[in-house]
Amino acid sequence: MARLNINGTVHEVDAPGDMPLLWAIRDLVGLTGTKFGCGLAQCGACTIHLDGEPVRSCQTFVEDADGAKITTIEGLNGHVTETVRAVWTEMDVPQCGYCQSGQILATVALLTENRNPTDEDIDASMSGNLCRCATYHRIRAGIHEAAKRLEA
Length: 152
Prior knowledge:
Layout: E1 2-6, E2 9-13, H1 21-29, E3 47-50, E4 53-56, H2 62-65, E5 69-71, H3 79-90, H4 100-113, H5 119-126, H6 136-151
Parallel strand pairs: 1-5
Antiparallel strand pairs: 1-2, 3-4, 3-5
């Protein structure tokens, strides 16, 4: 039995320690905003925050998260998050939206650490977050706009 603190609520889940956290979050807890993409930590669709750091939940195991603070797209909040969400909506950043929970979690982590990222900073931070629709130019523009609003 593992105790997973997800979005501020402790969930006791009956899961083997080597179960990918993604499946515990989706199948055992019922939070489906975190997506399965590749299963190899290559695409970023399964990104969550573990103790404030973005990680790939498909390759993070239940035993590694036992007692840690887990934040999914459903529990992401605060000024940076609200700014990013507003910009994403206003600028029509997503197309199909499948990758966007991972994109938003990565963006919030970046802008929490760096309120004025360069294109190189964005590329480094967003590396590994793939967009099937190739809206990378809109994602980058959205990050720059959110950064501008956060600095205002």
